[in-house]
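Researcher: Last one for today. Full complex below.
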Amino acid sequence: MKNIIVGLLGFGNVGSGFAAILKENMNQITNTLGCSIIIKKVLVRNLAKYKNAPIPEELFTTNADEIITDPEIDIVVELIGGIRPAYDYIKKALEHHKHVVTANKAVIALYGRELFDLADKSCVSIKFEGSVGGGIPIIATLTKSLAANKIEEIVGIINGTTNYILTRMEESGMNFEDALSEAQAKGFAEANPTSDIEGEDAAYKLAILTHVAFGVEVSPGEIPYIGIRQISEKEIAYAKQLGYKIKLLATVRRNNGSLDIHVHPTLVPFEHPLASVNYENNALYIKGSAVGELMLYGKGAGSLPTGSAVISDVMEAAGIIQNRIQTKNSFASRYQFTPKAISSGASAYYIRLQVTDQPGVLGSITTAFGRNGVSLESVVQRGRGGSSVPLIFVTHETPWDKLEAALEEIKKLNSVEEVASILMVHKQSQ
Amino acid sequence: MKNIIVGLLGFGNVGSGFAAILKENMNQITNTLGCSIIIKKVLVRNLAKYKNAPIPEELFTTNADEIITDPEIDIVVELIGGIRPAYDYIKKALEHHKHVVTANKAVIALYGRELFDLADKSCVSIKFEGSVGGGIPIIATLTKSLAANKIEEIVGIINGTTNYILTRMEESGMNFEDALSEAQAKGFAEANPTSDIEGEDAAYKLAILTHVAFGVEVSPGEIPYIGIRQISEKEIAYAKQLGYKIKLLATVRRNNGSLDIHVHPTLVPFEHPLASVNYENNALYIKGSAVGELMLYGKGAGSLPTGSAVISDVMEAAGIIQNRIQTKNSFASRYQFTPKAISSGASAYYIRLQVTDQPGVLGSITTAFGRNGVSLESVVQRGRGGSSVPLIFVTHETPWDKLEAALEEIKKLNSVEEVASILMVHKQSQ
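Model: Here's the assembly. Have a good evening.
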């Protein structure tokens, strides 16, 4: 069998991990595939930086076309990240009938449909296992292992930075800023952590999962997301007393012909498997019509875990090439599910109010909830007699508009100083 | 594209689940594959029982050859279970160049190598995702998503019956017999639960995982296994006080050129993801050289979850048929790892002694541990002044022979009434 020739775009964190794994496991890969995978060229910006790289100096180039248009190259592996020029390179590579493997969440979330269609037109494949959940085989599981399931729901911890911060706040009582600094010092948060902290990164990944699992294209911008910047160590302690951890959950679920989809800090009961996903780890909780509940857990980022996912994609593309398989990349035709609307759906909520501790306050608040059709599961009052005491409510499942109406009324009560916190509560499904 | 014709051997729990999922998701399956999957014949023992089955009566037959030798049938799906006649049918089907999908752990554990080689010779594929972990995509993950990883370790909760029993004992304080009865009443334990309870079922599945992940054939009979019958509710309570849950773990790991492999009741720290795997759920914890730690969690048995795995295999085989792919089923050639020996390896241990509470007893026991090179992490004495009190030791990692020598010495001490319990302790890897 002919060897498979690969061109690499980018030699940063994931690119160098990819090359290292390939070298380390060459025998195993060759034995499995029946052919070798050979890196022919690597695109970088500055050749001088790669004088002592672990691969031969002459492989590096600064000219993308040397890779994208080289007739000998079978697979283009895009590991530059960011939208441009990555998107242009991928597009051009597909047009030149290269198979493409990428770990680029932004490009797939924003341009996935267009690129899948283009790949189909060019009779090549585009693979992106590394774009969500690092080394966790989420795309393979959704598209192959669960191919005969109707996916009902995916709930994921898909941002390692925020999960690291929330874990450290919870276990040490430190505040958000200190936990963020620690995460940055340890390499789990970037110098500019905004996209991670605000939930935007998770929204991108959730857009990809939604496309793959439901065949529905949502742009990341359509997904309501709230990050964790406003989560205080006090909130985490309150949640803990009630038996919950606070996690940043990315959720997409079917709801009567529409899709509920959002990224939101959420209380997860201690006993739920997602509650034990700590530090920088990621996890995907999937509910399928046949398989029931399934969870995949692992490192959601990093040179070697993501490199592992990228190589599994390259090996799959190699099999497609060797066997001349006609692939179909588009997801839209698989599921034929047209959601009525993207909604934020119903949820149970955790509401913390700061109130003046005076007789009758609880009665007027619970009356306002009841009048708006919000049913309460529990009420906890922490502290007594201060001028401002916290009152914590956990609701039963409630549509957002009802809760909003109730809170509008509650805000107007004299004794209510502040609606200090609104978080979702993840109910254990049975 | 031509449709894929399937013959089903067996229409019990999994077989009927398979048919139901196929019917329910026919559109999605057809859209994904580009062809339909059609059940042509179903082998059963007693036709009379299937008068009102959800598939047409005329599909049922009592003659296996009508399926195995039918030239029109592409894939034989074996869901009878047990060793004979399942093994004979599978063999004959492969000889007749049928692709085979099975969920039969016994046949794959005992005859896997022979059948993989036979399939290779016949240029067909044999798939067995459903044989371990029900709907959890463990075989796909090991063989494909982690294809570029050297697997270092697999630690699994792969028997739902024992996990259900241990969970119920832990949460309610009930004893083993009551928990077993409850599991039987709820359908989580068979009328004859011996194979599950004693750890044999887990040993079969572990043999399959070892073959797939390391290319090493071990017969289930070579795997040391200990079940949970001797685990008392008291032991579970002691372990809980120390911060552990007791789980029946199936473990295989590399250890200096040999493989440590065993099924053993083990203390798992609360914070470890395996500790939150409760009731009848299964989980596989995998350590790969590139991916790091990965865990897959889900329903390890049942009509629909296992049926889901079986259909994913059938869909993969359908792709192989449609694209005329040359498959390679054998695992031996992939990894080229020849273990020096199957060893039970080193572990941390939990030892409970019942001793007479008298001065000096602790000193003579710890001296005996030390003299034999067993280093202790903690000692806890529960209760005081009774004639028989428990002394609980947790050791650091210790080779079994050293622990054994120490316990021989300790048993001879006058004040030691009994070595009441020896369990393994799973250390959180870093």
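The radius of gyration of chain B is 24 Å. Chain B has a mean pLDDT of 94.
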